[in-house]
Design a protein that fits this description.
about 210 residues, alpha/beta, TIM Barrel, 4-stranded parallel beta sheet, binds 3-phosphoglyceric acid
Length: about 210
């Protein structure tokens, strides 16, 4: 599973974090992201449309690797997998979520904000972690400071990152990609501005 996570973290420099209110937007949005060079898509389980969106993208969008974000419980992992998610992302961890992830086929990218949390996950076999919330928690300086004492871990920092701040994170030796919601802004999703989303994806894909 760690190898699967590494592979999807290397597909593109940015994993878009999507908050989707209308599942009908899922397929054209995902097609626009893929066309712009961004195949890995995290749909957060924060809206009632999320599972339908994951199901539609998994079934209909060639080249997309869709996963769920905001996985908090065993039930979230099961529902996302059943909808066709290929991975799950969580903002933090709990012992019960980690036990459920052990029993699930879905690879989990769990979030940490401290070295102690990272060490606890390392003990459980995780070498690929989300650093969340990246900017409020200390930004690229904090993450860079973990590279020497925790060299085994590769991160996807997420939270407060933009096109202009992403390069600071991507330059770190312990960062494989960043996450961010800026590629799929609510106004573009609502108005169906797929060309605009493709453009944002292309800019993001060019970061590396
Ligand atoms: C989130 O929690 O929504 C993600 O971490 C994305 O954060 P962002 O909106 O700051 O990119």
């Amino acid at each position: 599973k760690q190898q699967q996570v590494e592979t999807l973290m290397r597909l593109a420099p940015v994993i878009p974090v999507v908050i989707i209110d209308d599942a009908r937007a899922a397929v054209p949005m995902a097609r626009a992201l893929v066309a712009g060079g961004i195949p890995t898509i995290e749909v957060t389980l924060r809206t009632s449309a999320a599972l339908d969106a994951i199901r539609a993208i998994a079934a209909e969008v060639e080249g997309a690797v869709v996963g769920c974000g905001t996985a908090l419980t065993a039930r979230d992992l099961a529902a996302a997998q059943q909808a066709g998610a290929r991975f799950a992302v969580s903002p933090g961890t709990s012992p019960r979520l980690l036990d459920a992830a052990d029993d699930s086929e879905l690879p989990l990218l769990p979030g940490v904000a401290t070295a102690s949390e990272a060490m606890a996950l390392l003990e459980r076999g995780y070498r690929h972690l989300k650093f969340f919330p990246a900017v409020p928690a200390g930004g690229h300086k904090l993450l860079g400071a973990w590279a020497s004492p925790l060299p085994q871990i590769r991160f996807c920092p997420t939270g407060g990152i933009s096109l202009s701040s992403a390069p600071d994170f991507l330059a770190l030796p312990n960062v494989l990609c960043v996450g961010g919601s800026w590629l799929t802004p609510a106004d573009k999703l609502a108005s169906g501005d797929w060309t605009g989303i493709e453009l944002l994806a292309r800019e993001a894909a060019g970061l590396r």
